[in-house]
Amino acid sequence: MSTMETFSVRVTAKALRRRKVLLKVTSIVLLICVLLLGLMYCFTLASDNVGNFTVYVPDGDERSFSLSTKPDFSEMTTYLEAEVLPQMDNITQSWLPENLDGTDGSHNGENYIAYTWYLKNTGIETVSYLAEINIDSVTKGADEAVRVMLIKNGEKTVYGKAQKGSTEPEPDAVAFPGNTKAMSQQYDGFEPGSVDKYTVVIWLEGEDPECIDNIKGGQVRMSMHFSIVDA
Predict the structure, then answer these.
(1) Model pTM?
(2) What does DSSP say about strands 155-160 and 174-175: parallel, antiparallel, or unpaired?
(3) Is the distance from CB of 220 to CB of 50 less than 8 angstroms?
(4) In Å, what is the CA distance from 15 to each residue of 7, 10, 26, 27, 117?
């Protein structure tokens, strides 16, 4: 009659202490990895958020403007905000579609912001007004390669920061008037009830020499302001 031998494992006190230390170290390493992954995720969310674009107008009685994304002004406001792109890669102007002002409201593409709205003189006076696109904040020098296309009543103008170390504009663009302003233009003879149609398109120009890896993860936040010019 055969017998079954007993198989046993004995752990010495020294080995047990070594195992406890190893488990503790492993737990700490795993915790650090989880924290690092969490920080990397938060950083990715922050860096991929390209920025936003907002529009403001003054509010008054005899001299006032209203904004709307509807041409009949069935919905009016003094503040508009375009939809934000979660991520933007560089493109070039020739890649943009035709008829960019043919759709109202936000109509972003894969790598560009596009927003169309209407400005109406809801006052009782004919006025001159100043239209300005402000650069509210920039990180990692992303404004060096950004382009802003303004289409007013079908007329298109492209703005970009001046060539680095120079006051000369980039090819096919009008130079920003300053470090915190993308455009500034006065328009006269805006009569009561008149409507101007605006479209703004924003992208990173891949043909710009400053469109380099250093600006990856950068942000540009812009806003457009309309103000009535006193006589």
Answers:
(1) 0.76
(2) parallel
(3) yes
(4) 19, 10, 16, 18, 73
